[in-house]
Amino acid sequence: MKVTYQGETGAYGEMAVYKFFGNKTEPVPCKDFRDVFESVKNNEVPNGVVPIENSIEGSVNQNYDHFINYNLKVCGEVAIKLAHVLITNPQTKFEDIQTVYSHPQAIGQCRKYLEKHKWETIPAYDTAGSVKIIKGKQLFSAAAIASEKAADIYNMKIVARDIADNLYNYTRFLVLSHEDTAPTGDDKTSVIFSAKHASGSLYNVLGEFATRNINLTRIESRPTKTTAWQYNFYLDFEGHRTEKRCAEALQALEKYATFVKILGSYPRVI
C-alpha cells in the first residue's frame, strides 16, 4: 500500500509511515504538506501522514489550516522520537562548519546547541532534504540536522549526536484517510469549531465535555483568516464520536458554535 508523507527518503515522516503501517508499505515522498492532502483527496494514495505537533516546538500550524480546507478524516495517530544528529560531507571537519541547514522545526529544537557554536542557520523544506542539499551542492563548510538514517542513506558523516535542546523530543503525526475508524474501546476524537462571538461561549463548550466526564487532551486556537480577531479551535478528546456521551457533547457543541467539523475518531496512542 502506498502512503504519502512530506519530505525526502529518510525523513521522520517516512519513519512515521513505517511505524504505523509496517515495513511492507511503500512511502511516497512529497515536497509540501499540501501535496500530502491533495494526493489523498484525489485518491492517488489511500492514506497520508502529516505532523501536527512537536513536544518542544509546539504546533505545526500549516497542517491545522489544511484540515479546514480539505474534507479528509483522521484515522490514526503515531508518535516518533526525534533523535537529531549533525551531518556533514565526509571531507568536512567539525571546525570547518559555518552554516547549518534543516527544517525550521528542527532548527528550533536544536536552538541552544546552534547558538553555542554561533553558526548561521538556513531553513530547508525537510530534515533529510537538508542532507541532500549539502551533498548535492558539495557544501564542505555546511552541516545538516536530520536523522541518523538520513546520514546512512546519503553516505554522509555524523559529527555530533543528541543535539536537541531536550532529548524528550517527539513529534505527533496524524494519518489521513477518507474514513475514520470503528470504535476500539480506547479512542480519541479530533474536531474543529468556531465559538459564537458571545460572552461565555467557549466556557459553555468546555462545560459540555466536563459535565460528561470527557477528558480533553488538547485545545489549540488558530485565526479564521476570514475575520480579524476571530478564531477556530482545534480540540482533541478521549472517546469515539459514536459513544453516547461523546455524541451528546458534540451535539451540544452546536449550540455554542458557528462552525463544527469532526475530523475523525481513531485509536488513542498518546
- The count of strands amounts to 15
Q: Please, what is the average pLDDT?
A: 95
The largest pleated sheet is described as: 6 strands, mixed
What is the ordering of alpha helices and beta strands? EHEHEEHEEEHHEHEHEEEHEEHE
Can you describe this structure?
This protein is α/β, with parallel strands linked by helices. It is built from nine helices and 15 strands. The strands form three sheets. Strands 1, 2, 3, 4, 5 and 11 form a six-stranded mixed beta sheet that branches. Strands 8-7-9-6-10 form a five-stranded mixed beta sheet. Strands 13-14-12-15 form a four-stranded antiparallel beta sheet, with helices on both faces. A hairpin with a 7-residue loop joins strand 13 (about 215-225) and strand 14 (about 230-240). The radius of gyration is 20 Å and the shape is elongated.
Question: How is this structure best summarized?
Answer:
By secondary structure, the protein is of the alpha/beta class. Helix content is 30%, strand content 35%. The chain has helices at residues 12-21, 33-41, 61-69, 104-109, 111-117, 127-136, 148-153, 201-210, 244-256, and strands at residues 2-6, 26-30, 47-54, 58-59, 73-81, 85-88, 99-102, 120-123, 142-146, 157-161, 170-177, 187-195, 216-223, 231-238, 257-267.
